[in-house]
Amino acid sequence: MSKFKSSLKALGVSVLLASTAVLAAPPAVAQSLSEVLAAVKRDSEQMSAADQARLREFQQDTASQAARMAEGRSALNAAEGRAAALSAEFDANEAQLGALEAQVSEQAGDFQELLGQFRSAAGATMPEIANSFANFDYPDRVEAIAEIAEARVLPTRAQLERLPKAMLQEMIAQSEVKTFTTTVNGIGPEGSNAEAELLRVGVFTAATTDSRAFVEVRGSGSDTFLQVFGKQPAGNYSSSMASLVRAGEGEVVKAPVDPSKGNLFGILGDLPSFGDRLQQGGQVGAVIAVLAIIGILIGLYKMFTLFTSGGAMRGTAKTRQAGTGNPLARVFEVYENNRNADVETLELKLDEQILRESPRIERFNDIIKVLAAVAPLLGLLGTVVGMIITFTAITIYGAGDPKLMAGGISVALMTTVFGLVAAIPLLLIHAVVSAMARSNQQLLDEQAAGLVAEKMEAIHGGRA
C-alpha cells in the first residue's frame, strides 16, 4: 500500500513539472524590447505631428470665423441704423400727414361734414341701385358711387354729381317699360350664360322678350348679376308678359309687376304644380287619380250614349216605327211580331224585351258608383300610410327637422284630397247617369204599357 502511494506522488510531481514547462515556453517570433520601444516612439511622434497639424488648422479657422463675425456685426449695426432712420422718417411722415389732415379738415369746414353726409347717403343708396334691373340697363353707376363712398380724399364736383344723377336716373327708370340686352346667367344651353334681350317693367320686373323666362337680381354690391328663375311662375304671368311685349305704343295692357324685384315670383315658382301634387300623393294618390279618370270617362260615355239613345227613343215614340236602332224600336218590333197573340202572351213578350234592354241601359252605372265609393276609402288608406311614414321618420331622425316629416304629411293630406276630389264628381256623374237611365227605362215601360192597353182596347172593342 505504501509503495502504491509513493508511485502516485511521483506521477503527480511529473505532471506538475510538465505543465510548468509548457507555460514558460518562448514565442515562435521573438522581438527585443528595444525594437518595441522604438516602434512605440515612432507611432507617438507621428500622432503628435498629426495633432499639431489639426490644431494649426483649427486656429486658422477660428481667426477666419472671428473675421466674419466682425463683418456680420458691422452689417447688423448698419441695418439697425437704417431702421432707426426709416422709423424716424415714418414718424415724421405720420406727423406731417396728421398735420395735413388737420389742415384739410380745417380748410374743409362745413364741406367736410357735408361730405360725410354725402358718403352716408351714397352707402345707403348703393344697394338699392345695385339690386335694380335698371342697373343692367345703365351700367357703371354702382362703381362710380362706390368710388365716392370709399375715397379718402375730397371728391371733385363731377364725382359729387354722380349720386344725384344716379338717383334721378333710378326714379326715371321706375316709370319706364323698355327692352335692353345684357348677359343672363342660366339662359343659355345647359344652363350657361348668354346674351338675352329683356323687357324691363320699371325697376321691378324683367323677362325675356319671348316671355319664356323671368329673371331676378342676384349677388350684392358691384358683383350683382341677372339669373333665370329655377322654376318659373305660373303660365298666366308669362302670357300677361307676352301681351305686354306685343302691345303697341300707348296701349294699356295688364302685366305682372313684382315690387319685391323677384322675391314674389320666386315664391310663386316654388309653389307645387299639379304634377308635384300628384308626386306628393305617392302610389296611393296615383291609383286614385287613375280610378277617377276611368270613372269620369265611363260616366261621360254613359251620358253620351243615354242622351243619344233617349233622343232616338223619344223620336220612335212619336213615329212608332219598329226596328233595331234603339231599345224602344226593338220593343215595337216585338209588338209587331206578336200583334196577333193574346194579351198575356204579348205582355210577357214585351216584358221579356224590356228585361233584355234594361242591362244595356244601366250598363257601367254600378262601376261608376263603386269607383265613387272606393275613391274616399283609398284616400283614407293614403292618410294612414302617410301618418305611418311620418311616425317612422320621427322614430328614426327625431322631431327636430320638420322637413323629414313633410313627405309623410304630404302623402296623408294629398291622398285625402285626391279621394274627395275623385269621389265628388263621380257621385254627381253617377246621379246624372242613373237619372237618364231611369228616364229611358220609364219611357220603355210607358210605351210597353200603352201597347198592352191598346191591345186590350182592341179586344174589348171587337177589333182584334
TrEMBL record:
Subcellular location(s) of the protein: Cell membrane; Membrane
Chief place of localization: membrane
GO BP annotation list: protein import
Membrane topology: Multi-pass membrane protein
Record-level GO cellular component terms: plasma membrane
Superkingdom of this protein's organism: Bacteria
Organism listed in the record: Hyphomonas hirschiana VP5
Organism phylogeny: Bacteria, Pseudomonadati, Pseudomonadota, Alphaproteobacteria, Hyphomonadales
InterPro entries from the UniProt entry: ExbB/TolQ_transport, MotA/TolQ/ExbB-rel, MotA_ExbB_proton_chnl
Keywords from the named record: Cell membrane, Coiled coil, Membrane, Protein transport, Signal, Transmembrane, Transmembrane helix, Transport
TM stretches of this protein: 284-304, 370-397, 409-433
Domain MotA/TolQ/ExbB proton channel residues, every copy: 331-442
Pfam families the UniProt entry points to: MotA_ExbB
Family note: Belongs to the exbB/tolQ family.
Signal peptide residue numbers: 1-24
Name this polypeptide is given: MotA/TolQ/ExbB proton channel family protein
Coiled coil regions, renumbered to chain: 76-103
